[in-house]
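Q: A reviewer asked whether we had any structural model of the full assembly, not just the individual parts. We don't, so I'm hoping you can provide one. Inputs are below.
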Amino acid sequence: MPESRSSSGTMNRRSFLRKSAYAATGMAAIAASLAPLRDYDDDISLDDFLRKHYKEIEPEEMEVMLAKITQEVEHEYGVRPHVRDLKPMAGVEFVTALNLTRCIGCRKCVHACVAENNQSRNPEIQYIRVLEMPNGTFDVEQSSHDYDPETVPREGFYYMPVQCQQCRQPPCVKVCPVEATWQDADGITVIDYDWCIGCRYCEAACPYWARRFNFSKPSLSAEDINPDMAYLGNRPRPRGVVEKCHSCIQRTRAGRYPACLEACPTGARKFGNILDPNSEVSQILRDKRVFVLKEEHGTRPRFFYYFDV
Amino acid sequence: MNSGRAGVIFVVGFLVLAVTLAMDWWAFPYEISEVAPADSSAAGISTVRTSAAELVRLDGDTSMLACYSCHEADDPPELQLDADGRILMEEHSFDFELRHGASHRNENCFQCHEQSNLEMLRKVDGTLIPITEGNVLCGGCHGTTYRDWESGLHGRVSGYWNADLGPQRKEDCTACHNAHSPAFPSLKPWRAPQPFRPQRGEAGDSTEVHEDA
Amino acid sequence: MRHFLTFLGRCTATAFSGSVRYKAWLALLAAITLVGLNAYARQLVHGLETTGLSDQISWGFYIANFTYLVGIAAAAVLVVIPVYVYRNKALRDLVVFGEAMAVAALLMCIAFVLVDLGRPDRFWHMIPFWGRVNFPTSILAWDVIVLLGYLVINLYLGAYIVYARYRGRRPRPAFYIPVVMVSIVWAISIHTVTAFLYMGLAGRPFWNTAILGPRFIASAFTAGPALIVITLLVIRRVANLVFGDDALLMLRSIIQVAIVVNLFLLMNELFAEFYSSSLHSNSATYLYFGLEGFSELVPRIWTALLFDFVALIIFVLPISKNLTWLTIACALSITGLWVEKGLGLVVPGFLPTPLGEMLVYTPSINEILVGVGIWAFGVMLYSMLVRVALAVIQGRLSDKIYPALPVEGTALAQA
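A: Here is a predicted structure for the entire assembly that you could use as a starting point for your response.
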């Protein structure tokens, strides 16, 4: 390139032009590589981007956000939801007990949960997994998840539904790098869907495989929407965040039973306040031989199983 | 190669690349399993059957409870037994299976029904109760289960766990158990979960290949 | 300050100039990077459904590469230790290439973490004092902090040494020796913390073993120096940089120790897994022998182990003093460990799932393109850093020749 040694102005100008051409080509290629973004439909406003962590939101700001969620849901699904920010009740700690003798493995709870909690229908997100376990073992690796006989229960098997165990020492909360998930005073581990960064470390940490990630934008139709919503519960989730069983806080923090319990045809599920000595769960923990899953992990679940003839 | 020509190659090459990128030629399909439509029937909280008490409460068809629309009031029925001492059911006007208790322990109509007043139930101590109060009758034999049922440990509940905020609804024994054949019925299971990504052997029919928009 | 800004400006100009061959190399890497960027843009639009990941196997190709590259970054310190702790002259001029590799590898690590996030727009939640970092309980929070710290340390060290050289001054020990000492400990820590990321998960028995930390270090101290050996050989060939073979042999002796330790630790791990043969060994069974008919990783892991083992043999034999054999052995251990500590570490940790499911994970093409793009970007960055460092070391870029001739087209820049 002898010309670049020249100090002549025209040469410098030509060099400048050539560099500009390179730069322009480079910019064009970068812009072209970003072409898929033209289909980007997630409208992230500056407000969304700078949204505060749940625990830092002032009550009046929460009112604004609930109104915004109401508006968004109504706009997207044509259903006006009733969105609340339900706080834990004083003197309440929730516990679930599940009677394995009663469970027949019909999976009604699984689908009732989906209907209640506005989970994505496609891809399918379910909080409860029912394991068909052969008699004589407690090894989940021998279980079947996709059993599909004509009728259940099948001879020689028992059925074990597994969902978030609402641990007292939750590994998922421990590993979350941004405190997007925490254990509330009533023992329910909740997720701030607007704070979760989607790293899925909690999915790796959970020994009960209770967490689900929104790999795609959740899809549900207007008739699927359950309009009774809670901020930390079943309001529609954005793409790219983790969700999980929150014990139906939109129901339970309003005094009602969770959806899986009400749907269970056999009454295998029991739920209530362990701090109330007369609650069903208190009596079960007192009178039945209950156990927890994977006790050796030290997670101290609030979800108890028992057999009871 | 002189740098001028190299520059031209660079510009042309990158422009070609830019075109292929912009045209989505680098978009490759990825696989997601196709999901069958959701089944919303699971959300219902109805019981597997309707108890007599519920039938009366709901003003339903109680003709089955009107024993004396067929039986003669002053002619108590006698049991027809076969050679093994088991009841012959074909005498009865409607079909049902009598299978209460292992080894046919409780297969005698008049252990529960009052022979002289068929519309009343007869507790073990001999007292008579209306058919709509069957729970107590069941409790006569199934004491521990009855105790559990009373405190909500056995059976279906719905409504409110917190009595201060709303009522709790408890179901009758016969909302789940047919008194004549009390074993809980087998059910067709609801749809099995589907893996998010198609698994081996399933690809093809159940695969939804996502081409980019 | 003004001097330093001028220096940075000239460095940038140098990084983008050079021979046609150098520019073609950069252009090729840039093209691959753009294809990767394109794939990532697609992932941004459609979400992580464009990958092969699922709720069962929620980490894959991205995190595997991240883990491997943390090891590469940590290994940069192995050029530093001999020079500053043992006063090894042979490696002194080469320290800066190690620093450059650390910087490039760290940026690739950060990129791999970023592309793995479901919500990259919320990355700031992880930044201390701005977001809400779950420190000190979350090991991922630790990892972000130590990685950023290590990046700063290496940027500082590399820049300081090169800048001093550029100004024709001797680096002042007070300004860098303490930092060097910190960087040595820090390097070990970044990889240990990355191991802790996995080790701390009680629900994943394959990872929940104390040997993972030592193994991470041992394998990093094999693959890292091996990569440095190969890049040094490339640099020596294309850039006419004169340095003796003793620098390479110094690295060889480090690898000799590390590779033996790594295989020893692996043997311990395999013994514990397979002799006890509890249910917790099922992940290892899946990896090495296949489980319930799932055996995707079996051929890969045995190939990797074969590579590791052949590399070990070559490294311990005197033939590896021969540069050809050394290169072969380095290439084998780099590839072997990439499999072993990449997908071979991440995927079996998820299988069987905590509820006993078995599934297949295959990275999607889009996922692989994103990964390849990040690698191309890293190599491009490394090439530029090396080019700048070379220009300074070889005296072509110095404030003694200032203002310099137009860098482009000068004979000196033809390197």
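A: Points you may want to mention in the reply: Chain A touches chain C through 67 residues (CB under 8 Å). The first helix of chain A runs from residue 2 to 5.
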